[in-house]
Give the backbone structure.
Amino acid sequence: MTSATNYRLIDTRGVIFIAVLALAAILVPILTLVIPQGSALSIPPYIVALFGKYLCFALLAVALDLVWGYCGILSLGHGAFFALGGYAMGMYLMRQVGARGVYANPVLPDFMVFLNMKELPITWWGFQSFPYAMLMVLLVPGLLAFGFGWLAFRSRVTGVYLSIITQAMTYALLLAFFRNDMGFGGNNGLTDFKDILGFNVQATGTRVSLFVASCIALIGGYLIARWVTTSKFGKVVVAIRDAESRTRFLGYRVETYKLAVFVLSAMMAGVAGALYVPQVGIINPGEFAPTNSIEAVIWVAVGGRGTLVGAALGALIVNWGKTFFTGALPEYWLFALGALFVFVTLFMPKGVVGTLEQFKARRARKKIATPEVAAAGE
Amino acid sequence: MDVASGSLLYLDGVSVSFDGYKALRGLSLTLAPGEMRAIIGPNGAGKTTMMDVITGKTRPDSGDVLFGGSTDLTKLDEATIAELGIGRKFQKPTVFENHTVDDNILLALKAPRSALATLFGKAQASTRSRIDHILETTRLADHRHRLAADLSHGQKQWLEIGMLLAQDPKLLLVDEPVAGMTDAETAQTAELLRAIAVDHSVVVVEHDMTFVRDLGVKVTVLHEGSVLAEGPLDVVSADPRVIEVYLGR
């Protein structure tokens, strides 16, 4: 008896996942702030920021898994939604700098003064307000995904063609954001942030808070994705992935479903980007680079697509590997990444989590007496 | 138009061409409410294209396609036509392999199809018993928790027919339901379709003459995109033109 679909909102895997994140959200502040720095147990702030960054990538991976793993839409442009969320946060942070910039202009960020801009562009209006900026973190990626998805899914663009145009989308944004007259800092992007909600972005307390916020966002993103995928809606989405025209002939409006999943995923990616920017202290057009989006796909493939937890795990594993490699053997990182992708595709097509699951299932099947297998085999 | 108004499905002078190849040329066909019809014809006769036209997958170049005497199907898309009450079974069994048998039927059950309804909607109390009923009819009750991917070929075909039933359509279009089935499965499928035809209209496309004989219904022979002959199987199979088409070349 194989019952593949798990109907429970949170399965065992999910409980472990949430417990680990919750534990991290409790322990890391204690180990960083309460235990004196330099003692054996303490965590240095740069490690906190590093892992906070990984968590943002993990949230991006969960978002990507939602569209790719469950709906079969291989987006090679999800980095664009991540970057847009990041820019929205960056714009808020720039406005918080105020008169403390090099040019001491109370309204205009330094780069605008440098470019001889006289007044704040309309696109920047309202970004001094945190709630407005957070709204934009969701709305801007959401609207782009809606517009893009509406055109693409209605015209029934699927498979590799869709992947290529998502790639083109992020590349187009990369080129656009490089231009100075776009008004988003051009090539240099946005940096030299001072504070967020009145707290210094460099302060250890702020770093720890951002880490905790990233844990909460990842748990939240996971729960939303889980709720969506375990609902009947989620079953329709998987049905679309496996037999699109069958789903259509059953009377489901496939394009609406795809659009809904795509927009939700883009918003999640936007939130991930928004949490990423204050932790790394910069956002520039490089974040739109197609390679970033492709790397995100590798995280999901490594961890196991269609598992959510696996996607997050894949992001952590690959990025930890990247940090290690780029430190120890910088020139070999891309080779290692390529080799990893080839290895996973050939030998672990279901990723880390999927492969573990297969082992478990195989062992369970061996335990059950053989008659059952014979009955199920036919 | 008198013929059209009393009919469930009415095709008149339907033509379709793909890059100059005429798949259908002036096809006309009328199906009465509650009727079961078998459609036969050699490869390339236009059987599948006819299904595509009725279900909105292909737009005809000319001709009328009316459902229930008045609804023009050539203006509607697949989802709308499915909701009107036309269910389709594909030639190759097409089920949701990664879903359980239960879930396959659940997704097909007549219920609101919008994204909002499936995301926030609560399951209806009658759902369980409706699924049970369909699984009984299609002999799949013992397999309900298995993945559709693990079913045998014949079981997949029945599951797909079950999904059609779950849609509770007015008209079922069934494309080669017994292709690749064993003789026993074929006989069971004929029985299943006859049971379904008691309260549904059914169009069956099939190559297998034994199966068509088992169905015991009016037969339409297609050839090169139009109707060659129509009537009981014995009459049709005695028609020299039909023999020519099937055996002549």
DSSP finds 15 helices and four strands in chain A. Residues 12-377 of chain A form one domain.
